[in-house]
Amino acid sequence: MENKEYTTKQEQLARFAKAMGHPARVAILDFLIKQNSCFFGDIHEVLPISKATVSQHLKELKDAGLIQGEIETPKVKYCINRENWEIASMLFAEFFGQCACKKESCCE
């Protein structure tokens, strides 16, 4: 049997997609991408996210490399990891742009 492996791009894209797979994380990213600098404070005060769940969502985003900073109290500051944001943007654009089917549905 032939050993088949996922490409590095596929694994990286899947990791970014998994990290973005919750509406709270998308809301956090949406908020942070609009900031001019690192955000200091409690994000639960500006988004509809309870304080109890904020840290787990921030940890997932940080583990995926989409954000950076200190997420443990009392040091709370975080921002978009610009380098990985560009990589994720390129990977998603490349992935969604590769569809060879130009019709509304390939099944017709």
UniProtKB/TrEMBL annotation:
Keyword Transcription regulation: yes
Transmembrane intervals: none
InterPro entries, sorted: ArsR-like_HTH (IPR011991), HTH_ArsR_DNA-bd_dom (IPR001845), HTH_MetalResp_TranReg (IPR051081), WH-like_DNA-bd_sf (IPR036388), WH_DNA-bd_sf (IPR036390)
Entry keyword set: DNA-binding, Transcription, Transcription regulation
Coiled-coil regions, chain positions: none
DNA-binding in keyword set: yes
Protein name per Swiss-Prot or TrEMBL: Winged helix-turn-helix transcriptional regulator
UniProt organism field: Xylanibacter muris
Source species taxonomy: Bacteria, Pseudomonadati, Bacteroidota, Bacteroidia, Bacteroidales
